[in-house]
Amino acid sequence: MSKELNRPAMVKPDRSSAGSTGRLTNISTKKKNTTGESPKTVRMTPAEKMLAQEMVEQIQALTHKNITVSTLLRAGLYLAQSAGPEKVLKAIKENI
Predict the structure, then answer these.
(1) From CA 25, how far away is CA 48, in angstroms rounded?
(2) What are phi and psi of 88, to 5 degrees?
(3) pLDDT, mean of each 10-residue run, the chain (96 residues)
(4) How would you label 67-76 residue by residue, b for 16+ Cβ within 10 Å and e otherwise?
């Protein structure tokens, strides 16, 4: 009365070669530039730490990218470079 169940034979997929682009994940194989460097200690006052954290939260609200204080400081380097040394020195004299 009932039919016998026939399962299809299992076929394993071929192994991918080392250089194939058919990866299953989207994890980049290229290392980030900052991972090879040892961490640098940055001394800040509690007020400066709070200011940095508030700024990170404001920037984080604008994007889905993970923003950290370190990211903020690195971005500040590029802003300082484009502003020029005179403006950076003026900001240092006025705020620090």
Answers:
(1) 39
(2) -65, -45
(3) 78 70 60 71 92 94 92 93 94 90
(4) beeeeeeeee
Can you say whether the dihedral through the CA atoms of 33, 74, 82, 84 is positive or negative?
negative
CA dist., res. 95 & res. 91, Å (int): 6
Residue ranges in the chain assigned as alpha helix (H) = 46-60, 69-83, 85-95
Q: What does the domain layout of the chain look like in residue ranges?
A: 42-95
Q: Of 67, 65, 73, nearest to 48 (Cα)?
A: 73
Residue 68 confidence (pLDDT):
92
